[in-house]
Amino acid sequence: MILVAALKLALRALRRNKLRTLLTMLGIIFGVATIVVVVSIGNGAKAQIEAQIASLGQNLIILLSGNFSRGGFSMGFGMAPTLTKEDYEAIRKEVEGVSGVSPEVRASTQIAAGNQNELVQVIGIGADYLDIRSWPLASGANITEADVRRANKVAIVGQTTANTLFGDVEPVGQILRVKNAPFVVVGTLSPKGMNARGDDQDDIVLVPYTSAMKRLTGATTFRSLNIQAASAEAISSVTNQIADLLRQRHRIGPGRDDDFMLRTQQEISEAATATSKVMTVLLWVVACVSLLVGGIGIMNIMLVSVTERTREIGVRLAVGARGRDILLQFLIEAITLTVLGGVIGILLGVVGSRVVSVTQGWVTLVSLDSVILAFGFSAVIGIFFGFYPARKASRLDPIEALRYE
What ranges in 17-144 are assigned the alpha helix state H? Predict the structure, then answer.
């Protein structure tokens, strides 16, 4: 009953000065709304990155060839062709816990079918590639080991490429010219959409890596290999085995730098989310500063309120109210301000997240955790910054308070 009475008194006091109450809550409203929007953007970015990383396949390990340097400047791993066909075969046969290995031989080249042509990314792959990438076929068949061994002129096309070149015609069985060499389309890929960089993953042509090396690049080595571990638990063991095997094959002695680099799916995910984490932390700082300013504003207004209502406090103390009753009344006023501001801020944050998603095309996910966190922040701000004014009011001398003009 005491709490109910104190809440009624607090609401009555806040209604007396509606404009001041609203202005006092603005800092809390915008701070809480910022938290909700920031967390929803962060959750959306994280979910999108995780989906993109998952689309690479399961238990993936990427092996990149050596670091190429020119004029004292490092050009980065994957630039120097240090991975050979023998390395590829050795990994397939000698490393335990590997369920699939496939090279990637990339080339951007002009392709044509009928009177249609376009510049597209052609990737030379092994027979395990689609299984490694968890990329099912929409129609047709996969590239086989026999196709790879014989460097057959067969191709699998992505949905975008198929629509561009063949329209409504079924692509399987059609002839696709890659650098004037006729390739038979044996399959079409299920759509994957955009990757993390915004590139269309469906605008692609897959051919046997032997065909790509023979007819497109002229290379005899690989820049990268995709390796799939049999399970998540086997990733560490497989990575160590591959590293030991390549050091032995490439005759890399102790203390010398490797001429290759291994990256796991988890490492790729962590690297991809690092930037978004930094931006989220910065926005969190802005939101917390906004809440801090809002809390200071509430303390300021509550101190003014204590001064304005000194006589009222004196009367209440004179007729029997205890100091803790006064403390509770003013503390509830401060908490009510922040909780109301928090509720409005949460609603504004949910709307703001939706606006960001619609206008910017970003994925936003408003989670229950962010709502609870924002609401909890607003309540804590109210208790922290409302306690001092409430304590000051509860310690007023009744006689001095009644004399106050």
Answer: 18-55, 85-94, 129-132
Residue 211 host element (H or E): helix 209-212
pLDDT digits (tens, 9 = 90+) for 32-89: 888 788 788 877 777 776 666 666 667 888 898 875 444 443 444 445 678 889 999 9
Closest C-alpha among 66, 67, 82, 122 to residue 222? 82
Token code pair at residue 28: 């809390």
101 backbone dihedrals φ, ψ, rounded to 5°? -140, 135
Q: For residue range 19-32, what is the model confidence (pLDDT) as tens digits?
A: 777 777 777 788 78
Are 378 and 28 within 8 A, CB to CB? yes
CA–CA separation, 404 vs 401, rounded Å? Answer: 5
Interior angle at CA 363, CA 360 and CA 365, nearest 5: 125
- Amino acid identity at 112: A
- 3-state DSSP call for residue 252? coil
- Rounded distance, CA 318 to CA 398, Å? 6
Token pair belonging to 385: 């910054």
The span from the CA of 62 to the CA of 101, in Å, is 10
Average pLDDT over residues 170-177: 91
Question: What tokens were used for 166?
Answer: 């063949």
Short-list 227, 217, 208, CA closest to 88: 227
Cα dihedral 193, 199, 204, 209 sign: negative
The pTM (predicted TM-score) of the whole model is 0.62
Rounded to whole angstroms, how far apart are CA atoms 169 and 172? 9
Element containing residue 377 per DSSP (H, E): helix 368-394
As a whole number of angstroms, the distance between CA 100 and CA 328 comes to 68
Q: DSSP letter string over 308-355?
A: HTHHHHHHHHHTT--HHHHHHHHHHHHHHHHHHHHHHHHHHHHHHHHH
CA distances from 81 to 78, 103, 221 (A): 7, 12, 6
Contact 74, 67 (CB under 8 A): yes
CB atoms within 10 A of CB 162: 26
